[in-house]
Design goal:
Elements lengths: L1 H17 L4 H14 L6 H20 L3 H4 L2 H27 L10 H10 L5 H10 L6 H25 L17 H10 L5 H19 L4 H12 L5 H24 L6 H11 L2 H14 L4 H11 L5 H11 L5 H21 L3 H13 L20 E4 L3 H14 L3 E5 L2 H9 L4 E3 L5 H5 L8 E4 L4 H13 L5 E6 L2 H9 L4 E4 H18 L1 H7 L1
Parallel strand pairs: 1-2, 1-4, 2-3, 4-5, 5-6
Helix pairs in contact: 1-2, 2-12, 3-10, 3-11, 3-12, 5-6, 5-8, 5-14, 6-16, 7-8, 8-15, 10-11, 10-12, 13-17, 14-15, 15-18, 16-17
């Protein structure tokens, strides 16, 4: 039976990938097809789905900074949007009930409010997957979207406490002591090394946090998120995230498959769900207006709003609780499952072309931008820079230091992760904060003295997009980039990049050349030893 899931997930995911759509749409389709064929889910599928969500929240925590949640643009936009959306959809549902629209005829005030509340959440799974695939988790809009999702999770915990009537035990107060346990957690992560113990340590922390919070009556997923946040300042947080990436992606396939097993829809249910899903356009507008009123730049507001414009799997939990309590009919559980699935598809199709859309309609969108700019959106210009390194991970930082030995202060770095950038600035490096895919950034960044830009980025799509933005901004210098595979190298050259280094091939060549110098310069070898 397990192979049947893999078979359908593989061929549906591959088919959608071949035609240029995200594989997760294929996984959703596979779940509905399996259900239609009468194949029953087993407990192992739910286990896989739960593991995927737990690991995902843990890895989100590893990349999250708690200070982001305290920013006004995060908590104010989250609470305002949830309240306005619940009011809007609840009113619409009551209007439908007065004209006896199918499935709405028995909707009362309480039911309408529950439906609106259930659909006010955005999908953590879908959004994180999209941001990861586009390399935007640590960008300004990516961090904003993640902050909103975490705030929504906090509201979800409060709702479950009220709806189930189960208050956390008094022992839950001891969870605050985890702050003082960070040195111990750091030490355990240090001892794990870099091999197979590292992902196992990640599982231990993620599932341990889940079980600990469950034990004291708090939502277990929140525990995985908290443990991730506690470890987010550790130097190995990024390495730990990468070691869990394949496991998380594999387990999340179980989640997408499980949605299809919710129930078999009728045509009328599908029609109702489709109409509800089309309302994500309204959801987008509400987020965009709130973000821009909170003085966010139009591009940040637009991209974060587009990512958040879907419905959440948590809506199914709200619906299931409401059905069990007799507040909703069972048909609504099917309708909401379909609406969630359709919203995933819409967001997954639209988001990859978001940057191009913004470039085409930038002037119109910027009309809604506040004249006051937040401190986090200010742009700094490095002085006397002739070479710019974009992306300061391990490769980019290594390239920067090598160039600094030759060019001194004439080399500068650019990174969208402001925490990484600030850390490097404290080390005395000439670093500025900015998103290379941001057309507005290059309009306000003077590249006239820069003769070479190095794109040290893992995603070739990011490198291609940045090249596109640089050309549009009138950059006249040379561009170099890295690629892991030969077919990626060809794509980057076609995009107009002047020189592309094959990551593995060039590393081997450099290693051989540097090592050969040990034979030709024995005196230097003696000095080093």
């Amino acid at each position: 039976m397990d192979f049947i899931w893999i078979l359908f997930a593989y061929f549906c995911g591959l088919s959608l990938k071949i035609i240029g759509l995200p594989p997760l749409i294929g996984f959703l389709l596979a779940g509905f097809l399996l259900h239609f064929l009468g194949i029953e889910p087993t407990a192992s599928l739910d286990t896989l789905a739960d593991l995927g969500i737990t690991l995902m929240l843990f890895t989100i925590g590893l990349k999250l900074h708690i200070g982001d949640l305290l920013r006004r643009e995060v908590w104010a936009s989250t609470l305002s949007h949830m309240g306005l959306w619940t009011l809007l959809f609840g009113s619409l549902a009551l209007l439908m009930a007065t004209v006896a629209v199918p499935f709405y005829s028995e909707v009362d005030l309480q039911t309408a409010a529950l439906l609106g509340f259930a659909l006010s959440f955005s999908s953590t799974v879908c959004i994180v997957k999209l941001l990861e695939e586009n390399g935007e988790l640590k960008t300004r809009h990516g961090q904003l979207a993640i902050g909103v999702l975490v705030m929504q999770d906090i509201v979800a915990v409060l709702f479950l406490v009220i709806a189930t009537g189960k208050l956390p035990s008094l022992w839950a107060l001891l969870l605050f002591a985890l702050i003082f346990a960070r040195p111990l957690l750091f030490r355990l992560l240090d001892k794990a090394g870099h091999g197979e113990m590292l992902p196992l340590t990640g599982f231990f922390f993620a599932l341990g946090g889940y079980e600990l919070f469950q034990l004291v009556g708090v939502k277990g997923d929140l525990g995985a998120l908290v443990f991730g946040i506690l470890l987010s300042q550790h130097s190995k947080a990024t390495e730990l995230t990468k070691s869990l990436l394949s496991f998380k992606d594999l387990f999340l396939i179980g989640f997408f498959l499980s949605i299809g097993f919710t129930a078999l829809p009728t045509w009328s249910m599908l029609g109702t769900a489709t109409l509800i899903a089309l309302l994500i356009g309204v959801k987008f507008l509400m987020f965009f207006i709130l973000f821009t009123r909170l003085q966010l730049r139009s591009r940040t507001a637009y991209l974060a709003s587009l990512a958040l414009s879907n419905f959440s799997e948590f809506g199914l939990i709200v619906a299931a609780l409401s059905v069990d309590s007799g507040w909703l009919s069972r048909e609504w559980l099917v309708i909401l499952a379909l609406a969630v699935s359709i919203s995933f598809i819409i967001t997954s199709v639209l988001y990859p072309s978001a940057h191009r859309f913004y470039m085409l309609h930038k002037a119109r969108l910027k009309q809604y931008e506040s004249s006051v700019r937040l401190a986090a959106d200010s742009i700094s210009q490095p002085k006397d820079a002739e070479v710019l390194v974009i992306g300061l991970g391990r490769v980019g930082k290594g390239a920067y230091k090598s160039l600094q030995n030759i060019l001194d202060h004439r080399v500068a770095g650019l990174d969208s992760d402001r925490f990484r950038a600030q850390e490097l600035q404290q080390m005395g490096m000439n670093i500025c904060i900015g998103d290379g895919e941001d057309a507005d950034f290059w309009e306000n960044f003077d590249t006239s003295d820069i003769g070479l830009i190095l794109l040290a980025l893992p995603s070739i799509e990011d490198s291609r997009n940045i090249t596109y933005q640089l050309v549009n901004a009138g950059y006249q210098g040379k561009i170099a980039a890295i690629a892991r595979y030969e077919d990626d190298r060809e794509k980057l050259l076609e995009a107009g990049i002047d020189k592309v280094f094959n990551f593995y091939k060039e590393a081997g060549t450099g290693f051989a050349e540097d090592s050969l110098m040990l034979m030709t310069q024995p005196d230097q070898l003696e000095k080093q030893t």
